[in-house]
Design brief:
By secondary structure, this protein is of the alpha/beta class. It has one domain: Vaccinia Virus protein VP39 (Rossmann fold). The chain starts with 7 loop residues before the first strand and ends with a strand. 39% of the residues are buried. The chain has a seven-stranded mixed sheet, sandwiched between helices. The radius of gyration is 16 Å and the shape is globular. The protein is built from six helices and nine strands, in the order E-E-H-E-H-E-H-E-E-H-E-H-H-E-E. Strand 6 (114-120), helix 4 (129-139) and strand 7 (140-149) form a beta-alpha-beta unit. 31% of the residues lie in helices and 23% in strands. Residues 1-7 have low confidence and may be disordered.
């Protein structure tokens, strides 16, 4: 199921939704890149093999809904209050899946309440990524599965296609930028990075807590 472009920016510059519908794009280049992204993500998700899951910044819940259908335990997707997202959530339901409106900075869940916490293309948007990661690590008992755009490659590719030139290639709402090395360093503070993948042009990590 493809998603429309549903992007909202709050007063802190935090983006909800997608500035570009990468999951539903018919562009052959984007489809090729997304095939690598989704293949790598599926491999790491299978390795984590969660029975319960918290998806931080679930957006339109394309992935959250897919994951909920593959496991039996509780799945929770959280994101900011955005009517456009709520409409998408209504289209993606499962008996074990619930959506909650909240910010990621202070999660109202118990320590180790979920086996796995995910943040897929989210941490580049949050005001305090270190604190968000720490909260994710607190509420997860086994793994973190996270991905972000790889810099400076991401900006360079945007400039190459003439996008966001006035912002030096920075995608709207991207508050944080990491190389693969710097992102691995951030996540290593909370566990062992057992997989560090680079599906072009992203960094994707699986962290054992």
């Amino acid at each position: 199921m493809s998603s429309p472009v549903t992007v909202t920016v709050d007063s802190e510059g935090t983006v909800t939704g997608n500035t570009y519908d990468k999951y539903g794009s018919t562009n052959p280049v984007v489809r090729r890149l997304m095939a690598g992204f989704e293949r790598t993500l599926a491999e790491l998700f299978a390795q984590a093999a969660p029975s319960t899951l918290l998806d931080v910044g679930c957006g339109e819940a394309v992935l959250t809904h897919k994951w909920a259908q593959s496991i039996e335990g509780r799945v929770v997707g959280i994101d900011l209050d955005d009517p456009l997202l709520h409409a998408e959530w209504e289209q993606r339901k499962a008996p074990n899946l619930e959506y909650v409106v909240m910010k990621a900075e202070n999660l109202p869940f118990g320590d180790g309440e979920f086996e796995v916490a995910t943040a897929i293309e989210v941490l580049e948007h949050v005001p305090d990524p270190a604190h968000t990661v720490a909260e994710m690590a607190r509420v997860a008992s086994k793994y973190l599965l996270v991905s972000v755009p790889r810099e400076p490659l991401w900006r360079g590719l945007n400039l190459a296609r003439g996008a966001y030139v006035s912002e030096l290639g920075n995608t709207p709402g991207h508050l944080n930028h990491w190389s693969k090395r710097s992102f691995t360093k951030l996540l290593s503070q909370h566990g062992t990075v057992i997989e560090a993948r680079s599906p072009f042009p992203w960094t994707m990590l699986l962290v054992r807590l």
